[in-house]
Specification:
With 546 residues, the protein is α/β, with parallel strands linked by helices. It has three domains: 5-200 and 363-436, Metallo-beta-lactamase, Chain A; 206-353, Metallo-hydrolase/oxidoreductase (Rossmann fold, 3-Layer(aba) Sandwich), CATH 3.40.50.10710; 449-545, Roll (Ubiquitin-like (UB roll)), CATH 3.10.20.580. It is built from 14 helices and 26 strands. The protein has helices at 71-74, 77-83, 93-105, 175-184, 206-215, 232-245, 254-266, 304-309, 335-347, 368-378, 390-402, 449-461, 489-508, 514-533; strands at residues 5-11, 20-25, 28-32, 48-51, 60-65, 85-91, 113-116, 124-126, 129-136, 143-150, 153-157, 188-192, 223-226, 248-252, 290-294, 323-326, 351-353, 383-386, 417-422, 425-431, 436-440, 443-444, 463-471, 474-475, 479-483, 538-545. The strands form five sheets. An eight-stranded mixed beta sheet has the order 7-6-5-3-2-1-19-20. Strands 8-9-10-11-12-18 form a six-stranded mixed beta sheet.
Length: 546
């Protein structure tokens, strides 16, 4: 229908990460953001988690519009482009710069036309969608909100944002344009809910630089600062202070080096060459003259900071007198890994400063009073909270109701819900499939629940391999191989004897089918082990005929 807009979130609702929303009208489709999430502990062996692109598979997407360059908004784009045909990619200058590098790695750089989204330019027409971009302050430069105007009404998608009256680049959230949108009328508001539960206002990014300026000059050893690789403003502040106090800056971590180079080339970071040194040069620089920027603020297993914490990095080590600043808040689910890295670094003698004990991090997301301010500026007829766990969405909904939005016009949706906007209002009208897609090495979407269950099983109870050889209708005593299972010689002997007796009894009954032999060995040995240990290791019977 030409006068009904379908809004379909495929990620980002009921969770933090993999943000992605589909907009459909008059047979045309655009997508706002295509993010990823990082695996939780139960996703054993999984590298990345993506939205389920099944709904869009083999379709033509008129445009993917990117609000900013964080991985939870752009990291899934190459994988989406393998599943669906994307005609155009819209993003600001820095966002496109960082995304182009990612697409180039996947061999997709020329698969879609890249168009710059300029918040200072007039609106653009993309099929039946009229797009207008609004500058929003966030923790990465060049973030935007998107006004989407269609025959069904006007929608405003905030992207990630905060007010920040003193941003590093001087580019504030454009409250004048937001007020103008409110005067024109917004039929549906899709708003970032990450900090909706937190009272007050989010502090300015500039406060982190002031904390660095207080902390760094007095430190006797090397200083390491770990943050998200896309936090360009934080890197700029650290580089500025290094220049002031006579420290040389070394960037450790592939993604951070790449992002810094792109930002320098595009003019978003000012970093004189004489201030920068490669990691290999650290041996020649006294520790008190080093400032190291590194990835790993989320405790990722192979990240630079984790390798440094475990004394496994080829170029960087920490020792007594050094200071490590973790300038990020752990994403929900990463807390234990971050705490482990902090403990390791502290054991090595470093002083570790983080959000809990020093003002070294501020959020990039608006708190409740800022959300109230934005709702007051935009005055939407209907509100759909996005980007957050369910409790965050509910808190945002309460703020909307306080702002005068009727409860019947507040939609708390889930991934896969089809929200329809028409001249009659907004409602949840249908549902599509919206699960998870796992990336494991080079494989995408090929990890079943069974594989994850098996990995969990192996991690908890280990594996037993029972090898039995048949020769001329007789059986030789089986061999038992244990991995990750706390066995004793007595138990191993009992397992061998049990498997031997099972196979001999089956052969005596003229049961020789391999699968039946394996099934009986599995059940018999498994029962013996459970009776003796109350453990259920994975048991793999192998029957070999010679």
């Amino acid at each position: 229908m030409d006068d009904v807009l379908r809004v379909i979130p495929l990620g980002g609702l009921g969770e933090v990460g993999k943000n992605m929303t589909v907009f459909e009208i008059a047979g045309e489709t655009i997508v706002v953001d295509a993010g990823l999430a990082f695996p939780r502990d139960e996703h054993l062996g999984v590298d990345l988690v993506l939205p389920d692109f099944g709904y869009l598979r083999d379709r033509t997407i008129r445009a993917v519009v990117l609000t900013h360059a964080h991985e939870d908004h752009v990291g899934g784009l190459p994988y989406l482009m393998r599943e669906a045909r994307v005609t155009e990619i819209w993003g600001t200058k820095l966002t496109l710069g960082l995304v182009s590098s990612k697409l180039d790695e996947h061999g997709l750089l020329r698969a879609a036309e890249q168009r710059e989204a300029d918040p200072e330019a007039p609106p653009v027409q993309v099929g039946p969608f009229r797009l207008e971009f609004v500058r929003m302050a966030h923790s990465v430069p060049d973030a935007i909100g998107i006004c989407i105007e269609t025959a069904a009404g006007r929608v405003f998608h905030t992207g990630d944002w905060k007010l920040d009256h003193t941003p590093i680049d001087g580019l504030r959230t454009d409250v004048g344009k937001l007020a103008d949108l409110g005067n024109r009328g917004v039929d549906l508001f899709l708003g970032d809910s990450t900090n909706a539960e937190r009272p007050g206002f989010t502090q300015s990014e500039r406060l982190v630089g002031e904390a660095f300026r207080q902390i760094i000059p007095g430190k006797p050893g090397r200083v390491l600062i770990s943050s998200f690789a896309s936090n360009i403003h934080r890197m700029q502040q650290a580089i500025d202070i290094a220049g002031e106090v006579g420290r040389t800056v070394t960037v450790v971590g592939r993604s951070m080096r790449k992002n810094l180079n792109i930002a320098r080339n595009l003019g978003y970071v000012q970093a004189p060459d004489h201030l920068l040194a490669r990691p290999a040069a650290l041996e020649e620089i006294p520790p008190h003259e080093q400032l190291i920027l590194c990835t790993g603020s989320q405790g990722e297993p192979m990240s630079a900071l984790t390798r440094i914490a475990y004394n496994d990095h080829p170029a960087v080590r920490v020792e007594r007198g050094d200071t490590v600043i973790i300038s990020a808040r752990p994403v929900p689910g990463n807390e234990l890994r971050v705490h482990d890295a902090i403990n390791r670094l502290t054991r090595a003698g470093a002083e570790v400063l983080h959000e809990e004990n020093a003002p070294v991090h501020v959020s990039g997301h608006a708190r409740s009073e800022e959300l109230r301010t934005l709702l007051g500026l935009v005055r939407p007829k209907a509100v759909m909270p996005i980007h957050g766990e369910f409790r965050m969405l509910a808190a945002h909904a309460r703020l909307a109701q306080d702002a005068g939005v009727p409860a019947s016009s507040i939609v708390i949706a889930e991934n896969g819900d089809v929200v329809e906007l028409s001249r009659d209002g907004v409602r949840i009208a249908d549902r599509v499939e919206a699960g998870l897609t796992f990336v494991d090495g080079l494989g995408v979407g090929d990890i079943s629940d069974v594989a994850l269950r098996d990995r969990r099983h192996l991690s908890e109870d280990g594996v037993l391999i029972v090898v039995t050889t048949l020769s001329n209708g007789t059986v030789t005593p089986p061999e038992v191989i244990a991995r990750g299972f706390a066995e004793t010689e007595e138990l191993l002997t009992a397992m061998r004897d049990e498997a031997y007796d099972i196979v001999r009894d089956l052969l005596a009954d003229d049961i020789r089918e391999i699968k039946l032999l394996q099934e009986h060995i599995h059940d018999g040995v498994g029962q013996l082990v459970y009776d003796r240990t109350r453990r259920r290791p994975m048991i793999l019977p192998v029957v070999v005929e010679v």
